[in-house]
Amino acid sequence: MHSTPFVVISGVLAIVLLVVLITRVKLHPFFALLISSILLGIVNGLGVTDAVGDFTDGFGSQLSVTGVVIGLGAMLGGILIRTGGGDKIADVIIGKRKLVWMPISVGLVALIIGLPNLFEVTFVLMVPLVFSIAKRLGVPVLTVGVPMTAGLMTAHGLLPPGPATVLAATAYKASIGEVTLYGVIIAVPVLLVGAWLFPRLMRRYLTVGSALDISGGSGSGDKKLEPTRQVGLAPALTSVLIAPVLMIIGTLGLDSAPKNQLFQAIGNPVISLSLAVLFGFVFLGRGAGFSADGILSLVKTSIVPIVGLLLIIGAGGGLKNMLTAIGLSDIVSGLAKEWSIPVLLFAWIVAAIFRIALGSGTVAVSASSGIVAALLAANPGTNSALLVLATCTGAMIFSHVSDGAFWIFKEYFGLTVPQTLRTWSLQVTVMSVVGLIGVLILGATVH
Fold this sequence. Notes:
The chain is an all-alpha fold. The protein has helices at 4-23, 29-43, 48-82, 85-94, 102-114, 119-137, 141-158, 163-172, 176-201, 233-256, 261-266, 269-286, 292-303, 307-325, 328-339, 343-358, 361-378, 384-394, 404-412, 417-445. Belongs to the GntP permease family.
């Protein structure tokens, strides 16, 4: 084992290398994580075989639960969108309400539809709705677009089965149901600020931009993936809410019946999401007129976009395991205790640093969770579910040019880079800080 200064310096250099490989060399984050992790292990004397072994152990451990949950979430999201269930939810909740209610309505729809979907996927799918609402109300597209992204970020960053929350919950061995329960509580002020207050305060900056021309055709071109019947609101909404409701019920039930197998089962995210997917197959897939082959094709197309994400998440687990293997996690944990930084605040700061450095919120959670997990072991009184949310809110902060979502927002709404920084980047930063405040308040009351 090398000296503490050597381990710390090598760890910092590995992170710098990771940032350079992603932002400058333009390597895929998975490969960048792989290279920096194994080099870190070798430099610290683990040997090539041991370094690779530690990385692959961390990779597999990270995906053992996370991969299944994200895969099921992708299936559910594909079913919801392709059958028209997402459009049905949007039409009913937004309807013809007055302009004053539009931000909250749009934010709520985005949150609901975004629950089982990746941020980028839901963004692209909801953009036509944003453009049509803006045209119907005669307002700038950002007036509708900003509340939409607030809902998506809230769902993606605070609520399972979002990749960040599931990933952090796995790393900290937190109850997904408890994360969902506290996530819903914190999501209320975060969504209100991001979808309603922020646009009101920044309205003079929301008059810029224009709608991207997306009229080049719609649909997949495959008739098997086109619905032949409309689905109702009840099955669409039920398919989205089954998993979070079951996980919350399971968590609450375990508090009063710790040995009850039923509550343990329905609170398990794999089981609750599997039930939601099966419900979607029957009441959305078949309800929309899909054949068995059509549903199978739909599932296949839903899984393809998450392959790269799963590789990144697994590689983040490899880096986390390497940080533990070389002793850096324990060193950082000791420093945090010496400096008397509250664990929840420390988790937020570490995740925020990685987010700003690396761009991707998911990668930031992957990279920071290994460091923060050691703190949890040294502070057993810390609520692990709140630690998940502290990490995830930190990973929401200041999306900028190294984040793919930044460019999606910029291009779809026809903005310049400075305009995107004043709108999108500032919005997610405000939401991140509000989320931290919510976590700290809950941390002072929940034990």
